[in-house]
């Protein structure tokens, strides 16, 4: 099974382009520095709401990443654009990532 992190957050419309521009560096930091990171999908739900779905090999990998927080420049920049975290949940899927 794969661990899935689902985080819903708000970013003002005026910063949407900056958020999208910061995304590649954040993903690069996760890929190079976070054990168990399998990939992510960013979904725009409305003018200022987003859903980030991140796939982890294990729940422990996700917990370690959460513990470390924004300790890399790309992650810090992306997180810094978020005004409010609405919700954050963890689940599992039996579907392979990318299916």
Automatic annotation (TrEMBL):
Q: Name one Pfam family in it.
A: ABM
Q: Which UniProt keywords apply?
A: Monooxygenase, Oxidoreductase
The answer to whether keyword Oxidoreductase applies is yes
The terms under GO molecular function for this entry are:
monooxygenase activity
Chain ranges of the ABM domain = 5-67
Q: InterPro entries recorded for this chain?
A: ABM_dom, Dimeric_a/b-barrel
Domain of life (superkingdom): Bacteria
**Protein's UniProt name:** Antibiotic biosynthesis monooxygenase
Native organism is Asanoa ferruginea
